[in-house]
Structure formats: structure tokens, C-alpha cells
Write a sequence for this structure.
């Protein structure tokens, strides 16, 4: 079992070069095609801001369109520089970032994205990993901005017996099967550390049937939030990637995430492969 195609979201942000390098190394390790995609446009927010001033200057619009083109060219340069000798394809799209990338995500088995960034006028320069998690229908590997290569010899599964976590484990099988060590970690809450959890045995059986000999670990409740404890556990095991379910829903046109999901997406120094 392997990934045949991996998609990386490229942009003009400072962390893009490292993200694309990470994606290229992973594609080589998996013998996968690497698809690079960037999408950007001048958003309606910008036109609204100009409209409040009572006019829209043609020169200003042309200037902003030139910035969009420059951003797309920068993203493509990052991608081309990292993919020498790799089977790679590039897509440069002029349109709303989220909808354009979501449409293209069906080409890939796995999407690699960074944390959201952008500007006040909504030029869509960010990767929107959170949005992609809930809309793309694909597992998303959220790459911390400082990471340019992923060591997948040791992986940790942040286990909770839910649909999302089960989906994440199945989606991560190509990496779990290649790993030298896999830890299935369950974080206790409210003093339930010692309570038996039959689902740990079930997920261990599932992994074993796919050739993955997992080690079970219970992350004790030390009073800190679950997300922080899971990240510390991963770092203690030497795991640079956590496999986890993503929990979230739409609320007033924005995504509301559970605490662990929010921590892994926004703050974790460890990469996470997440499914919704």
C-alpha cells in the first residue's frame, strides 16, 4: 500500500520553500508523483475596501493583479527548485485559494499544507490547512513552518475511538507500514489513566493485520491540556509526525475546532497527518 500522488500547497509565504522541500522528500520516499498547486486572486474584501472610498482606480487594480502574478511565480519557483529529478506536475490557478485547491485535491492521496497566513485584504496567500481538512475529502499533512524534512522512522498515533481517528489511521497506513516504530498513544483525562480501553486492542489488531507492530502507550493526565501532552509525548518518542483525527464544524462561516485539533494545527512543532 502506498501513496501514488501527493499534493503540496505552495504560496508566496516565507515558509513555502521548507514545506515544498518536505513534500519533495516525502514523495521520493513514497515513490509518488508530487503535484504542486498555487491559487490566488484579489478577493471581494479588497474591492469592498476600495468601494467604500467611493472609487476604484484602474491602475490600483492592475497593480494588485501584478502582485497576484508575482506571488504565483514565487510559489512556482519554490516548487521547481525542490523537485529536480522527481516526477512532478505544477498547477498555477487564478481564483479563490480555498475553492480552487479543494477542487484539485481529488487528484492526490495526501495533501500537504501549511498553517494559514494572509493579509488584511484577503489576498489568499495562506495555505488554509484547517479549511482543507474539512472540505477537501483528503487527509492533510499539516507542516510546521520550521520543518523542511520529515523523519518517518518513528510515528505516533494520537488515538481516540472515533470515526475521525479511525479514518486517519487508515489514511496514514502507507507511512505507518514504512515506519520502524509506531506508538499508539491515548491521552487520559480526568483521572481515567488506569481505566481499560478495549479500543486500543482493536486498533492494535487492525494495524497488525497490515504489518504494523504498534506499541501502546497511555499518556497520563498531568493537568495540562491534551494537545500539549500529546505533543510532548511525540517529542519524547522522537516522532516528527502525529496521526490524528480532526474534529471541527462550521460556525458562523468559520470553522470551530476541538482543542486537540486546534493545538495540532495552529501551535504544534510536530507535523500532523489528520483526517476528518
Amino acid at each position: 500500500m502506498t501513496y501514488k500522488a501527493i499534493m503540496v500547497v505552495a504560496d508566496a509565504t516565507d515558509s513555502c520553500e521548507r514545506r515544498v522541500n518536505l513534500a519533495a522528500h516525502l514523495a521520493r520516499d513514497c515513490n509518488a508523483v508530487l503535484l504542486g498547486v498555487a491559487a490566488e486572486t484579489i478577493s471581494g474584501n479588497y474591492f469592498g475596501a476600495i468601494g467604500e472610498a467611493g472609487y476604484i482606480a484602474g491602475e490600483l487594480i492592475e497593480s494588485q493583479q501584478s502582485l497576484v502574478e508575482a506571488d504565483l511565480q514565487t510559489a512556482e519557483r519554490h516548487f521547481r527548485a525542490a523537485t529536480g529529478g522527481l516526477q512532478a506536475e505544477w498547477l498555477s490557478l487564478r481564483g479563490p485559494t480555498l475553492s480552487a485547491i479543494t477542487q484539485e485535491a481529488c487528484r492526490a492521496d495526501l495533501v500537504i499544507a501549511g498553517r494559514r497566513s494572509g493579509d488584511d485584504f484577503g489576498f489568499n496567500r495562506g495555505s488554509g490547512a484547517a479549511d482543507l481538512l474539512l472540505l477537501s475529502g483528503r487527509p492533510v499533512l499539516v507542516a510546521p513552518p520550521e520543518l523542511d524534512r520529515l523523519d518517518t522512522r518513528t510515528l505516533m498515533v494520537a488515538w481516540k475511538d472515533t470515526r475521525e481517528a479511525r479514518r486517519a489511521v487508515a489514511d496514514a497506513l502507507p507511512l505507518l507500514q514504512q515506519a520502524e516504530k509506531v506508538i499508539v498513544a491515548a491521552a487520559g483525562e480526568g483521572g481515567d489513566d488506569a481505566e481499560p480501553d478495549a479500543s486500543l486492542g482493536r486498533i492494535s489488531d487492525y494495524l497488525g493485520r497490515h504489518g504494523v507492530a504498534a506499541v501502546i502507550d497511555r499518556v497520563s493526565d498531568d493537568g495540562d491540556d491534551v494537545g500539549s501532552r500529546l505533543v510532548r509525548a511525540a517529542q519524547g518518542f522522537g516522532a516528527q509526525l502525529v496521526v490524528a483525527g480532526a474534529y471541527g464544524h462550521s460556525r458562523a462561516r468559520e470553522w470551530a475546532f476541538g482543542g486537540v485539533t486546534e493545538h495540532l494545527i495552529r501551535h504544534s512543532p510536530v507535523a500532523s497527518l489528520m483526517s476528518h
